[in-house]
Amino acid sequence: MCYTPNMNLEARHEALISFLLPYQDIWKNEIMLQYPNSLDGYPMAWIEELMPWVAPEKTLQLTYDQGWDTLSAELSAFHQQTQTLCSFPQLTATRALPTTPDTWVKIIPKKQHELERLAPILAEFIKVHRLNDVVDIGGGLGHLAQTLAHHYHLPVLSLDMDEKLQTAGLRWQAHKWPNSRFPVRYQTHRIDHHDQAFIDLLRPNTLTTGLHTCGGLAVAHLKAAQVAGSALANMGCCYHKLETSETNLSQASKERPLPWGLYSLTLASGAHHKVSLDDIIFRNQVKRFRYILHFLLHDHFGITTPVKLGNADPKSYVGSFADYTREQLSRLNLNYTGTDKALEDFRMEESRQLLVEQMLAAALIRDQFGRVLESALLVDRALWMKDQGHQVEIGEIFDAKVSPRNLILLSWKN
């Protein structure tokens, strides 16, 4: 077998909920939107200790889990607990993908890594559970579908709502695998929350796969597999696109629900992303401008509810704060009659500058919850499948340095 189930999902769920609930005032809201009480819920001793780590080079260290052991015992223990809660079994295949000279033609390195890790695990999963065919959702060009079909001689149906991608996939398949006995079949289909047409494509001896299923598509995928009794391999992403009704699915989560919302789901979506030093420098500059603008909206215009500003031109963050602010205010149809100097003076006021730095330090704490929240979402989904009579396993499948969204949920009927 490609893995040894060795995790008690119920115990992990209990540990995740018990850890997250006391900190909910930190992770369920954006720091900026809690102004003027932005630091409520954060241990001030932690913020003061982390303020020197706002420097981009030091933030990069923390982002990649380096340097936490040099901090106070309390902060170090906090970080270690998040790492433990986010640790899952590493799933590996017993045999490597049987490649040919044409296998990686026009395949980017990240996709190659994913296919090398995922395809042989799924092939062994299919063999162990005596499955006959594969239905891949959101297949796009069909890289995974074609790898399973042509290297493992499996009947595969690739579903996607983008007909142009599928046409390109068919064209590429004809060029790359002209003599294959198992050509991938393509079908244009948009999967909805309860999609009987999709369910009808599945059988108990079908494996339905979804590599990076966006938002509610992952939940629809699980529910369809449950109704059809088919085996499933699912990887979720874009959790910020979930409806709150698509969280707290399992009975265990209904008994101890997490207060999910847009900001906590967005935090889960950002977990484990690759970042560079330049990314951190730019991100901190964006936050410094946005935080001060938010202070202005609250203090000067009396706006106390969240406002959508849209995406500013990245160049505006390297210009003057006054120019940036006037551009953003124009989007909101707000008129600031003061001078550019008044805006700069507002920004540079000592207490505001201190608060901004404290908020950046607080963000280092909040960011640690991203992967924990993602883990809670996926364990909840796994327990929901167990509630429905499926066997389940969650594991890490990709090297996070290459493909950060690396957790897969496998389920099957006995």
Task: Kindly describe this structure.
The chain has 414 residues and is of the alpha/beta class. The chain contains 17 helices and seven strands. The longest helix has 23 residues. The radius of gyration is 24 Å and the shape is globular. The model has no long low-confidence stretch (mean pLDDT 93).
Key descriptive features of the protein:
single chain; 414 residues; alpha/beta; 7-stranded mixed sheet; 17 helices
Low confidence ranges: none
Oligomer: single chain
Q: Tell me roughly what share of residues is in helical segments.
A: 40-55%
Q: Quote the beta fraction.
A: 5-15%
Concise overview:
By secondary structure, the chain is α/β, with parallel strands linked by helices. The chain has 17 helices and 7 strands.
Set out the fold topology.
Blueprint: H1 9-20, H2 24-27, H3 44-50, H4 56-63, H5 73-85, H6 109-128, E1 133-137, H7 143-152, E2 156-160, H8 163-176, E3 185-188, H9 196-199, E4 206-214, H10 216-228, E5 231-237, H11 251-255, H12 262-269, H13 277-299, H14 321-331, H15 340-348, H16 350-366, H17 370-387, E6 391-396, E7 407-412
Parallel strand pairs: 1-2, 1-4, 2-3, 4-5
Antiparallel strand pairs: 5-7, 6-7
